[in-house]
Amino acid sequence: MPRTHKLDYSATIQASANDTETIANMLRRRRTLLTVSEVAELIQWSTKHLYKLCADGRMPHASYGGSLRFDPATTANWMESKNVL
Q1: Over residues 8-15, mean pLDDT
Q2: Does residue 46 register a pLDDT over 70?
Q3: Which residues 6+ apart lie within 8 Å of 42 measured at CB?
Q4: Closest by CA position to 84, among listed 34, 18, 40, 52
Q5: DSSP string, 32-81
Q6: What is the pLDDT of residues 49-70, one digit of tens each?
Q7: From 28, 64, 68, 81, which residue has the greatest number of CB atoms within 10 Å?
Q8: pTM of the model
Q9: Which domains does the chain have, with CATH numbers?
Q10: How open is the CA angle 61-71-54, to the nearest 5 degrees?
């Protein structure tokens, strides 16, 4: 049976302002690429909106075999520059 991988960012999103760990810093430590679903969950946007941003060239991404992937550090920098977080 295949293993499913689902990240839970909800605790980080709901963390208090006193926490020193930010979502951007958490992303920068990550070593693997993010999927559209993971980014959508993280910033609480729809996957449809993310696909549109990427299609319009407004969000940095990479396309692998028809799937979009996001570099964690680049995504964190983009989110900070757009005041998403």
Answers
A1: 49
A2: yes
A3: 7, 9, 13, 23, 27, 34
A4: 40
A5: SPEEHHHHHHHHT--HHHHHHHHHTT-S--EEETTEEEE-HHHHHHHHHH
A6: 999 999 999 999 999 998 999 9
A7: 68
A8: 0.74
A9: 24-81 (1.10.10)
A10: 15
